[in-house]
Amino acid sequence: MLAFIGRRILIAIPTIILISIFVFTLQHLLPGDPILVLAGEERDPEVLEFLREKYRLNDPIPIQYLAWVGNALQGDLGISFRTNQPVLELIGEKLPVTLQLATMALIIAMVIGIPAGVLSAYKKGTWIDWVANVVALSGLSVPNFWLGIMMILLVSVKLGWLPASGYQPFAEDPLQSIKTMLMPAFVLGTAIAATLMRHTRSAMLSVLKSDYIRTARAKGLAEHVVLIKHALRNALVPIVTVTTLIFGELLAGAVLTEQIFTIPGFGKLVVDAVFNRDYAVVQGIVLCTGVAFIFMNLLADVAYRVLNPRMGDK
Amino acid sequence: MATSSSPLLDVQGLSIRLGKLDQNIVDDVSFTLEAGQTLCLVGESGCGKSLTALALMGLLQSPPLAIAGGTARFGGADLLSMAKEPLRDIRGGRMAMIFQEPMTSLNPGLRIGEQIAESVRRHKGANRAEGRARALEMLRRVRIPAPERRLDEFPHQLSGGMRQRAMIAIALANDPELLIADEPTTALDVTIQAQILELMRELQAETGAAMIMITHDLGVVAEMADQVAVMYGGRIVEAGTVDRIFTDPQHPYTIGLMSSMPSLGDRRDRLVTVPGVVPQPGSMPPGCRFASRCPFHSPLCETVPPLRTCGEGHKVACVHAPLEQLNPVDLQETGT
């Protein structure tokens, strides 16, 4: 298994290099000049030239790229044009916030989605299956921003159970942190729960038809043992795939939800950086997201091999 | 051995319905099985032999399949009307089943040892160590090489023959009184088939289990059976001791089956077949279901022929039997 993980990490290296090249070149294809943004009202050509020189924007792009990679390898992703903060520090500030949000959303989604999928596959064609599907479809169809606003109205304004917005770092006050994050995580989680439920249901339906499920029943095992130990275990592979992909998306894709609940997360950082042509920050973020995706895929590959021993063989 | 007055398994009038079809897909099947004996259910695919077995195990896929009537007394209780929970206590314990496809009948994600042990824990109240010990013992008894190592292997690491041995180990782990084997050798290589049959016979002799063997292979029947029941179109058309069925078959369908079995030294240009095809479920002839393919059929065949005694330990469901009294139409003439 360790050799396998090592091999996978080696394979990931060219992928990361490719991502970094893409990020770097795409950035330069974008219209707009970061120096103009940086200089603000100042239009003195000498100042602009000085700034260009300072940020090495006059060098050929390959040289710029190599300089950036060299620094990145030393843990220096550059400095934000806008705030003059090191990019790594910015990411280090925002990433944990979104990481917490994504993790909570995913936990909520799994706790709701997987049992619902198992149940609706097991009770296929009954009213339970029907209700689960209708709820799942609604979960998918209701836009996050609408659900977010409605929940703020109900839970915070009317009932006053949870704070409507804000952010409390987990390390300072875990309980308060979870409380403030609960509603946004729920809003994000419901849509994912619906996706997970649909995938779980279809995976379970095909597994429940297999011969080994009949064998398990022929042993006289209780239905819940048949369902969970024999069926769900074999149905988990597609569920793991979907879950890891969703987690990767959540890191950069929770922008709307973060905005509604005014959470100072990664998503907001991305949007601000793109609008302000904050090259260094955008590059750093995309690189981080890319690495996160690769890491999630690695996790998924490891999970596959645990779940399906056949993949262990050459 | 149980006395003939109380057989181990007594099936009476078992009928199975498929969806909304008005003809039963298994119709009025009755047979008894004494402890330690082997009954072979024989017939073409789709004749209802597997469904009969699954119904006894309570494993019919319902819907669309449903039991339409009958009883199956097994040690005093009726398997067909039993509640789910007590049936689960029997299933895998006193009554076990081996399936046709060893490649797909084992769970790909669980180790062989655990697949045996979980059944032992379920029925014998064994703890983990005892279950594992029993699993190892069973792997030895089905003569899987290097059983200690196999215990922790996954099904894909075993050959087809070994997987079927593992299936047998699972089925026999709790010393069942009744073993149902649904074409256990059909999916295996011919050389392996003989080994598996031999193993099953030995283990049956050791444990004294009764066996229902489902097969379409008359070679298997000759090898294994004490009793034979020939099924056609969901009904038993002929039943008796293996000697009677092989030496003096009475039903035209049985006779057709027998003569369609090729033998060495008997090279013919064409293999003998039973003419025609099995009608679709739901569109069987109203009386004798074999009538549409039978060279002897007459207006008498339009009522359902009862399964009547036609000799010592021999029953047949054909109004024309014994056929010798008829002006016989040669089966082969009409058949080929």
Key features?
A: 314 residues; mainly alpha; MetI-like fold; 13 helices; B: 336 residues; alpha/beta; Rossmann fold; 2 domains; eight-stranded mixed β-sheet; disordered C terminus
Question: How are the secondary structure elements laid out?
Answer:
The complex is a heterodimer of chains A (314) and B (336).
Chain A: H1 2-29, H2 34-39, H3 45-54, H4 61-73, H5 87-122, H6 127-141, H7 144-158, H8 174-208, H9 211-218, H10 223-253, H11 255-260, H12 266-275, H13 279-307
Helix pairs in contact in A: 1-13, 5-6, 5-8, 5-10, 5-13, 6-8, 7-8, 8-10, 9-10, 10-13, 12-13
Chain B: E1 9-18, E2 26-33, E3 38-42, H1 49-57, E4 65-74, E5 77-78, H2 84-90, E6 95-98, H3 102-105, H4 112-124, H5 128-141, H6 147-150, H7 160-172, E7 178-182, H8 190-207, E8 210-215, H9 218-224, E9 227-232, E10 235-241, H10 242-247, H11 252-259, E11 308-311, E12 314-316, H12 331-335
Parallel strand pairs in B: 3-8, 3-9, 6-7, 7-8
Antiparallel strand pairs in B: 1-2, 1-4, 4-5, 9-10, 10-12, 11-12
